[in-house]
Amino acid sequence: MYSHTTIGANDLARARAFYDAVLAPLGLEVRFADDGIIGWGLPGGRPQFLVVRPFDGRAPSAGNGPMIALLAAKRSLVDACYAAALEQGGTDEGGPGLRPHYHRNYYGAYFRDLDGNKICIVSHHAE
Prior knowledge:
The protein is an alpha/beta fold. It has helices spanning 12-23, 75-87; strands spanning 5-8, 29-33, 37-41, 49-52, 68-71, 91-98, 107-112, 118-123.
C-alpha cells in the first residue's frame, strides 16, 4: 500500500547532501532529481522518499506530530544513519536505543533534518 513519502525543503542542494549521507547506510540512492524534486530509492527501484520544493511556491514547514519512519535491516544501520544525520547538522530527537514500550525489538533513533522534518530510523530485529 505504501507508494512514497514527500517532505519539503527550503534548499534542495543542502537537503541532498544531508540525505545522501543519512540514507547511504540503508542502501538508498538518488533515483531521480531535477530543479524541484529529489527522490531516493533502492538501486534499480523507483523513488520512494522524496524531498521537494512545495508545488504551491510557499515555504515548506515541518509540523509537530508528523514523522517519517524509515526501516533499517539491523540496529547498526540505525546507529549509522543517526550519526550521519547529526554530522550533517541534524538535531537530536532521541538517540539510538531500544523502545520496549513499542515492542521488545524496536530499536530506533529520531532526529530532525535541516528543515525541521522529524525522521525516525528503526529496526524491528533482535540484532
